[in-house]
Design goal:
By secondary structure, the chain is of the alpha+beta class. It is about 25% helix and about 15% strand. The chain contains three helices and six strands. It has helices at about 60-65, 70-75, 80-90; strands spanning about 15, 20, 40, 50, 100-105, 105-110. A two-stranded antiparallel sheet has the order 1-2. A two-stranded antiparallel sheet has the order 3-4. Strands 5-6 form a two-stranded antiparallel sheet. The protein is globular, with a radius of gyration of 15 Å. The chain starts with 13 loop residues before the first strand and ends with a strand.
Length: about 110
Amino acid sequence: DVSRLADVSGIQHYVINGAKVLFLRPRPQPRPPKGVVAPARCSVDGRQLMDAHSSYCSMRCKLEVEDPLFAAHYPSGVEEMEAAAAAAAEDGGADGGLAGTYHRQGGHEG
């Protein structure tokens, strides 16, 4: 549980395969989810968040805002993420967004 080591308040949590997780880095969101109105947005990159009490989509976004030393050493990657999201939208997301992700039954794909 990372909450014993770091302050994860304000970061959107997800449940994946029954485990509570949070993202370390922002993930591109090529287009908004259909039919869902998100109650909040990430303060750094604008990603839609389903938890109204969250301000960040990832640990990196929180650190960019709240830790001046982190921001000085690791410039924002928002521009690169927006470019990646645009590229994924252009090619139609042929891999379904699964390239380079780990699947419990199937091992590593991509």
